[in-house]
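User: Second chain of the day. Same drill as before.
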Amino acid sequence: MHKQVVVIGGGVGGLTAGALLAKHDYEVKVLEASREWGGCAGKFQRHLYTFPVGATLGMGFEHGGIHERIGMYLGLEIEKVSLEKIMKVHLPHRTLIYYQDRYQHISYLQKQFPHKAKNIRSFYENVFRIAKEIRKLMQSLPVLPPLTVGEWSRLVSSLNFGSLKLLPYFHQSFSYLLKKHSLLDEADFLHFVDGQLIDSMQTTSENCSMLIGCLALDIYHEGAFYVNGGLYKVAEALQKSIKANGGKTTLGRKVVKIERDNDGWIVHDHRGNRYRASDVVCNAPVQSLKSLLHDEDYQHIHKRAKEKSELPQWGTFSMYFAIDERDLPQKVELFHQVLQSEQGEMTEGNHLFISVSHPDDRFRAPEGKRTITASTHIDLSKWSKKEAYDLQKQVLEKKMVTGIKTIIPSIEKAEHQISGAPKAWERFTSRPNGGVGGFPQTLDHALFNSISHRSGLQGLWLCGDTVFPGAGTIGVSVSGYHVFQSITSHRHTLP
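Assistant: Same format as last time:
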């Protein structure tokens, strides 16, 4: 008889692990506290409209991408549209376009910065070379940091001669590469790059790991997609796969305690139900472990996970709008960044990521209507007191609407305007203090300094955005795959 596995949290990472295990006849039960699947990539509804709560730009669906590989393996179908123009980036004094085609992208930016044309070409060629070697290394989806002989063996077997070229860059931040190509003093270009890094890596070029930063800039050119409905469709497809393979998935079940029982585990939910399991997959931030485990068990969690669980995460402030299509500019792009700071500040409403629903996307809005999602990074420490919270909310709403007007001057005609502050995120996703996005991919947190999916306790596994490889649906899917492989002792691999 196969093992019984309880997955805590119905985000994309936990659902990935659950779907892969269920395909191989494991008895899977997924417990999700909220009423929606997807976690930070979930959705909510207001009247005729569906709003993706967070992640909206899809990557990893290209040939060889993690979503494509898992989708093929499980037989999932996700409706998506490839983007030729990925987004428009609105700086204070100019607007730049991010093209999917690599060399169209380089050529375009050379024309925008003619005095730095050679520097920009050499910079991107350098980025693409490094990223190509990293992708070769990551094709087999090795585990970092490796903690077992098997993980070390699989990592070493994925190395090739080209991997040696990466060694000098392991301890460099991304600003090293900008400096090398004499681009640090080109403010608009620097802010353009930082805008991409803050969204995908949760930090900017000054502190971002150079290797991870190269991968982040390169991945847009591997493939960027609009997913019909939103990325919650990935979560829903995984959930349906689990059920189709005999697993059980339950919404509205908040897990409050995990305790060891002989050779297995007992999981307790807020309604007093108990679930026995040989393995538990915790798709919750590492910050949640202390409250879920008994003190004695928590002391056996890997030291790095415990140390990092004390560190703060970013929060996000999001705004959601429903608007008549006639009130939008003609041929408005689906994705935008708006940078409102002359100094290139990337948080507290100075940097916005905005997505507009596709005119043919009937999952999100009726015909003739569109939805808009806008978000910004925030420092959660500024939201700890009620008086400051209410004031911050008013200030940010006003600041974000000003930024959105850059691309949609008539945004105030919207039928719905909804704000999502940290407490809303905490209620919706059950994440401590409403923290999102995992840890910034700095030298202190990336690659070998990441948190392993191995908790330190036998049969308790970690996945999600706080463990390797990090945030985004790509990162959490890989973490879910690592858990699947470890539970099955690497008997099954993706094609």
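The chain has 15 helices and 20 strands.

User: Great, on to the next one.
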